[in-house]
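Fig. S4 source data, part A: sequence.
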Amino acid sequence: MNTNEIKAQICDVCHKMWQLGWVAANDGNVSVKMPDNTYWITPSGISKSFITEDKLIRVDEDMNVLEGPEGYKPSSEIKMHMRCYKEREDVGAVVHAHPPTATGFAVAGKPLDEYSMIETVIAIGSIPVTPYGTPSTYEVPDNIAPYLPEHDVLLLENHGALTVGCDLITAYYRMETLELYAKISLTAHLLGGAKEIEKPQIDKLIDLRKNYYKVTGRHPGYKKYSAKKKED
């Protein structure tokens, strides 16, 4: 995808997050890594419903602004994004949001680590709660770093959720899967608790997960999304 397509995709994801109620006011942030090792990231202090391509900011790996509108600054959570890219060479995009049900688990300090739903085991695996960190400081990136090698989805204690992917659509879909799983888990809890999948079946699902993105390295929905955008 070229730069214009990436910027359009970022705006689309931002608008979807706002429409779904995952962010309010200036919450949330999105970034994408480019082939030249620069990064497009959403600006600070703007609702995701108002994001347009001309408001996006390009930075280098040292967080220096290379391109963007005058008076705009990169998201205050840029340090968290850059740590994801530093710890994982396979990461091409990062999404941070506050999906209500999943964030409820984060503020309650409860990880979503039950293997009780087939699709979740395959798509995102277990979801830990990372230790509390003050937003916009190095506390957050330092606290998530130990979890990044083994997890694509994190709950940030008393904060929200973070997902990574090899591309933006994969990271976005993981946030979607997280919020749906959190809703299902909460409902199961109200009904007396989830019934976990037997370990032999979990092992089979984990094997499937290893091959989930084998062909393209991207979420299966990536091609469908790209085709739809071309039609639009």
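Fig. S4 source data, part B ends here. Residues 3-215 form a domain with the L-fuculose-1-phosphate Aldolase fold (CATH 3.40.225.10).
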